[in-house]
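Recall from the previous lesson that a structure prediction takes nothing but the amino acid sequence as input. Here we apply that procedure to Transporter from Gemmatimonas phototrophica. The sequence below is the only information supplied.
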Amino acid sequence: MTRTRLLEAVLPPVVAMGLAAVLGDLLILSFGESPGAVWALLVKGTWGNAYGIGQVLYKATTLTCTGLAFALAGRAGLFNVGAEGQLAAGGFGAAVTGLLLPASLPAVIAVPLCLLSAMFVGGAVGAVPGALRARFGASEVIVTIMLNFIVLALLNWIVSAKLHLPETLRTPDIAAGNVPRLADAFAMFRGSAVNFTIVFAVAAALVAWWYLFRTRSGYELRAVGLQPEAAEYGGVKVPRVLLLSMALSGALAGLGGVNFVLGYKGYYEEGFAGGAGFLGIAVALVGRNHPFGILAAALLFATLSQGGLAVNAVVPKQLTDILTAAVILSVATAVPEVQKQLRAAAASVTASLTRQRNAQGAST
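The prediction returns the following tokens.
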């Protein structure tokens, strides 16, 4: 990467963070507090102690997976808004697999089986909008948004009707396939939720980079995202690429469900996704849809999330939510690729609605 391209990739997020910091200073002053003291408290509560670092890494793990999920689809010209449902479906698949496996099964076998199950179920959910887009030209934006409601409602019904413990909305404790905490190997992280799922998330980022930039299939995916007509003229089977990219996107989001279900709680619980699927969109946009940028962006947003808890005694926790929104808006207005992706998503929705109106007019 040349120096110019490196500056083009790094400068917009850095400027966005600078603008967010200025806005944060103004908000802190409006509460009668010292910006320097509040920022110092935020840093101390996140990167200033082992527990804070562990919590940041835990939150960054899920955001890395959902960010990669959005970015992979984005590279193919698709706007995947369904990571929330895919994340929950992956966590549910891992939980069911862990419940079905015998407790005596060694972790070296049980954990990979649960990981594969999470990615398979998440990938299956992601493949649905991919197939509808490839076969009928349906807008993946609309389909993934609607599919979130369907998937979450279906999973909640299954848990509440079939798998829940009495007077709870969670499954029984999972005996097999639980991912060890980092504290088991590094005592300094004792008490934090970070677990070895972070290793799988980093590995997923490395594999995604290799796939996108070092394989023929990844080249075809990026070509479809840049110019589908030219890619098709060059022999690329565009419908297959669209389906594959959405399936892989769902699989990456599903992997993130393991972090909570098997790495933290040890059971599936309703509502565990907690907006991480949607925040993954912001992670991908700030990370410029590049796997390594997503790792950095996930750490940034995880720091803000954990930092909100650290400064809550001095200023409202919602301060960090405002800073998160400021970073997103700054990047969205300053980065041409992000503007192009948002315009493409809007065009996809408009085209889908137009086709629907035309079909209704023809039927009448």
